[in-house]
Input
Amino acid sequence: MRAFSYEKASSPADAAAAAARSPDAKFIAGGTNLLDLMKLQIETPTHLIDVNGLGLDKIESSPDGGLRIGALVRNTALAADERVRRDYAVLSRALLAGASGQLRNRATTAGNLLQRTRCPYFYDTAQPCNKRRPGSGCSALGGFSRQLGVVGISDACIATHPSDMAVAMRALDATVETVKPDRSTRSIPVADVHRLPGNTPHVETVLDKGELITAVTLPKPVGGTQIYRKVRDRASYAFALVSIAAIVQRDGSGRIALGGVAPKPWRVETAEAELPRGAKAAAEAILADAKPTRENAFKLPLVERTLGAVLAQARG
Amino acid sequence: MPTPRQLEMNRRDLMVVAGACAAFSTTAGGARAQPAPAGEPVLSEVSFSVNGRNHRLELDTRTTLLDALREQLHLTGTKKGCDHGQCGACTVLLDGQRINSCLTLAIMNAGAEITTIEGLGGVDNLHPMQAAFVKHDGFQCGYCTPGQICSGVAVLDEIKAGIPSHVSHDLTGAMAPTAAEIRERMSGNICRCGAYSNIVEAMTEVAGRQG
Ligand SMILES: Cc1cc2nc3c(=O)[nH]c(=O)nc-3n(C[C@H](O)[C@H](O)[C@H](O)COP(=O)(O)OP(=O)(O)OC[C@H]3O[C@@H](n4cnc5c(N)ncnc54)[C@H](O)[C@@H]3O)c2cc1C
Ligand code: SF4
Output
């Protein structure tokens, strides 16, 4: 790990201002992704701003009937919250399908959203990787790509976003609230937080330098049968090959977001009109622009079959 | 909340700060740090309690909680396996919750109450979970065992507190320490010797006694 100085922020706005002051500063929340990457010198911040202890760890009911989740709420606390279990079950289920009990006890809402890819070449500092070293090339194209993305990808990068939680938040139409170094605040639909790689896979989000996530809000509950189905190489404690967050209503309409297939939680609202026609039609519409590699082409039929299982489960 | 205790400092417990110390910039926990000259190690102070005893340490900011426990406080029961949060050998309890001590910085834990395997019990006063692991042969080489036991104790507390898991059928119902629940909840602790089924038996026995 490279040496760094450390400070504990005194307020969210001060944290943002402090991050803007030092060129290579990073926020640290649970630390479960950042420290892993710092040990490998994939991340090399020279200054860490600890955003724990700023009162951002509360889950509050909002006046519009929704929920406001502080950025520092731990994954365990969010999954176990009574309101989330009752009204946003897909979010509880997605959280519980991710990582391990120990990790979920530390991992935070914002940190989970901003966790970086698990592409094996991103982790291997001896290999070219456009995301880690812009312009060096993509080792995954033509390499081991079984885990990697099939849609939303580019010739520069085919990595996936590994979060389970974010997939459920996409299905729930969550919004991310932030504060910037100039103290201004803004709300960003979770759909717009992550960028597609294009030619700049190292630019992963729309957040500005020093912009701190303060909360994630959920609109009022939409009911329906809520399911999170994760397909992985082990029954527990593995990242998704394919995952589906589904909210299915009695009339057969619904919302579907996919994990494990794209650089961001993947949802195509227009494709949801196909749901009453069944899994095949809906999966084809969601993955219309897919460009799989030879190694990960299995993800296309896997999405279709997993969606079929999810829809069958929703029908009861 | 951690209860303040009298500061009990032991010189042996302090990091031996070499003469080079003068070249380092020291920052008190909570204070605003002076950005360090690039690449220079930075020292910082932190106080927390481990197994009921308070410690104040001066550490390189890079020191993980795991390394502070093992290298500074010589509590070597907590093991370093993968050092990347994947194996669970470094599991300790932080304010009663299990965490991977390799993926948190020591200086992030000011005021925390940490319990390691040494704090659960020793040879003369085994914790019920330790005794059950011995009785059911819940280990072979023993390297993952401190982490397994810390995790096991916390898992039973999580079930009692009604925290759901991936295999809980009813998210809102009561949670029970079934074998399926124990297996899922213990998946963050890898055992290379494959003592898993005996670990489930040990935990099931303790859960049964707790009622
Ligand atoms: C072995 C292992 C298995 C895992 N398995 C899964 C899995 O199956 N599914 C899954 O979804 N995840 C998995 N994870 C990832 C885990 O969910 C993430 O590490 C965790 O959610 C990150 O949260 P954190 O609070 O620890 O983030 P940190 O490591 O503290 O931060 C991550 C990033 O977010 C930034 N950041 C943090 N907070 C803020 C904020 N408020 N505003 C702006 N930026 C911020 C940091 O600067 C950093 O860049 C796994 C991790 C490990 C180690
Ligand atoms: S897929 Fe992306 S992260 Fe993986 S090697 Fe290529 S550029 Fe790097």
